[in-house]
Request: fold
Amino acid sequence: MLNPKTIIELDYQFDKSQIDELKKFLDKYFNIYDHEIKIYKVEDYAKQSLFAQSVFDEIQKELERESN
Reply:
């Protein structure tokens, strides 16, 4: 997912069944569908998230501009 609209940080690790329940809850109460949700383990986020990479790229560009 390259352009997320909301990011939620939790100090909690979901197991597979909890992720499924969370997705059902979001669908039922907010009409947010499975294909609109990405849930990452914290140790995998930087490697797997397209958004994380785009944030890193923007920070790197800003640092380069500031150093020039």
